[in-house]
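Weekly puzzle thread! Below is a chain. First person to post its structure in token form gets bragging rights.
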Amino acid sequence: MTTYVIASNAAHARVFAHQVGRIREIEQLDHPESQAHVGDLRTGEGGKEGSGAMHGNPRATGNQQATSDKHSAMFAKELAEYMKAAHDKGGVDDFIVIAEPRFLGALRDKMDDPTRRAVIREVDKDLTKQNVDDIKKAAGIV
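Winning reply:
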């Protein structure tokens, strides 16, 4: 029986495989756009001199939170598809998801029903930069 433990935020995910008493990191997924500064993502006019975004006008970039949410939703969809593929292949029985609270909600929204049912535990914390022992503890793995 294999459980994937996924520690994620809106820009980075670490995937661990857990089997009877053993856990190991098997993959990292990144979404660089979620890490970029909003002004770098939306400069208008291709970032030409004189565009409002290049001069720090927050209105020129539109709703900054909407841009951030859009990229978070894109990564949530990518991670949900990764989980679905792993579950559909039969190599993963269930998931423990440890994610930053806002991203956890976005990820739930993007999961299909079979994948969502395979999630046996959720922890609403960003532990992406923590060591494996902290992640094991949060996941309830002893």
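Puzzle host: Confirmed. Bonus trivia for everyone else. DSSP finds six helices and five strands in the chain.
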